[in-house]
UniProtKB/TrEMBL annotation:
The lineage of its organism: Bacteria, Pseudomonadati, Pseudomonadota, Gammaproteobacteria, Thiotrichales. This is Molybdopterin oxidoreductase. The chain crosses the membrane at residues 20-41, 61-83, 95-113, 133-154, 166-191, 197-221, 242-264, 284-302, 314-338, 368-389. Belongs to the NrfD family. It comes from Thioflexithrix psekupsensis. GO terms for cellular component: plasma membrane. The keyword Transmembrane applies.
Length: 403
């Protein structure tokens, strides 16, 4: 049977079970604790966080950037259907678009509340300095949300179906630009040696595809399990194969990143710092980013028996999510902790500004509370949207040929 000939029936979450309400309460409490953390840091000052003059982007930024990257990557499922004609993914397009919006909102919430003066955001949104990549990112984030909202509307409204492919192509291009902009925040930052390379943009695109696919698989499988719906084995196998390929792609660009730094003699210190003698950053890189975030999920996904089980695919996806958070921690926190070379080719005889010293950073519980609140906000909005709108297909049972 041609998959395009099958009528897809969507149904809201019933939301009548005790577990559903417990989930809502837990997520709401996490959001409230995050707001408390933001209020406390605003009134007491950022000295209560682990951030300092050397490490100005802390744990909340790790959560925020992860959610923003995942928001871009999770739209891949809808894009594969609309742009590349893989119709088997079309029933999942609504969930893909919804997650792109909710994950982005959660990430931006963390980013705004961590500014210290969120009331000043209106100035950043009305006075643009287009020589700054941060100003461009405000346009890209707002634009992405608007484009995906229209894409989702066209997807769900029968009268707008003729324009649905056009909206999908625009959303696909916009998310590539958005992720390029996020990676360019670090790629254009020449003052920090571990940043300042053009490979950041494609590396962030690969990371977004990996994070987004893992998040999509987790939410898809938990939603179907929680609502007792039928999820086709072949569709999950396709998605997990894509996840494995995105992990390999991210590893490839990570290799290119280190080869780029290894090519230039004056930047050998960066490579040694991350790979050999960077203390806990090196440990996190090998055990967390490579071991937990790549080796373990690849072993599970390509194992002939484990890779066929939904539960083990969920384990691999969780491993990718945790490994991805560690990857961002190593890159962003480690990149700031790496000794700042204020006077290149000059010898510093004495200094009280920590020249040549690895900066200290220990995230506080306030930062974790705020970061987790962003994730909780994304999940809360997703669950409520599934309860209100017809987002989830009644079943995804179409048998499809292997990729």
């Amino acid at each position: 049977m041609n998959p395009t000939n099958k009528i897809t029936v969507y149904r809201k979450l019933e939301g009548q079970s005790v577990g559903f309400y417990i989930l809502l309460v837990v997520l709401a409490i996490m959001v409230a604790m995050g707001l408390l953390a933001a209020w406390t840091m605003e009134h007491e000052g950022h000295w209560i966080s682990g951030m300092n003059n050397q490490v100005v982007w802390g744990m909340p930024h790790i959560f925020a950037i992860f959610l923003i990257l995942a928001a871009s990557g999770v739209l891949n499922v809808a894009s594969v259907s609309t742009v590349f004609g893989q119709e088997v993914y079309k029933p999942l397009g609504r969930l893909s678009g919804l997650l792109a919006i909710t994950l982005l909102v959660g990430g931006l919430m963390v980013l705004v509340l961590d500014l210290g003066r969120p009331d000043r955001l209106i100035i950043a949104m009305t006075h643009y300095n287009f020589k700054s990549i941060f100003a461009w990112n405000i346009v890209l984030y707002n634009g992405f949300m608007a484009v995906v909202f229209i894409y989702l509307w066209f997807m769900m409204e029968k009268r707008m179906q003729p324009y649905y492919p056009i909206a999908g192509r625009i959303a696909f291009i916009w998310r590539l630009i958005l992720t390029t902009g996020t990676g360019s925040i670090f790629g254009f930052l020449l003052a920090r040696e571990p940043y300042g390379t053009a490979v950041m943009a494609p590396m962030f695109i690969a990371m977004s595809l990996m994070f987004g696919k893992a998040m999509f698989l987790l939410i898809l499988m938990s939603s179907y399990r929680g609502s007792q719906r039928m999820l086709n084995h072949a569709v999950v196998m396709r998605l997990k194969n894509l996840l494995a390929m995105f992990i390999i792609t991210a590893l490839y660009f990570l290799t290119v990143y280190f080869i780029t730094f290894a090519y230039f003699t004056e930047q050998h210190g960066v490579v040694r710092f991350f790979l050999l003698d960077g203390g806990h950053y090196t440990t996190l890189f090998w055990l967390g980013q490579i071991g937990l975030g790549a080796a373990l999920p690849l072993f599970i996904l390509y194992h002939p028996r484990l890779g066929e089980q939904f539960s083990m695919i969920a384990v691999a996806s969780v491993s990718v999510v945790i490994g991805g958070m560690i990857q961002l921690y190593v890159l962003i926190i480690g990149g700031q902790a790496y000794p700042l070379d204020m006077f290149p080719e000059m010898e510093i005889l004495a200094s009280s500004f920590h020249d040549g010293v690895v900066a200290n950073y220990a995230p506080s519980h306030w930062e974790f509370m705020l970061g987790l609140a962003g994730l909780a906000m994304s999940l809360l909005m997703t669950v409520l949207a599934m309860r209100i709108f017809d987002v989830l297909p009644e079943c995804v049972t179409e048998e499809v040929p292997a990729l």
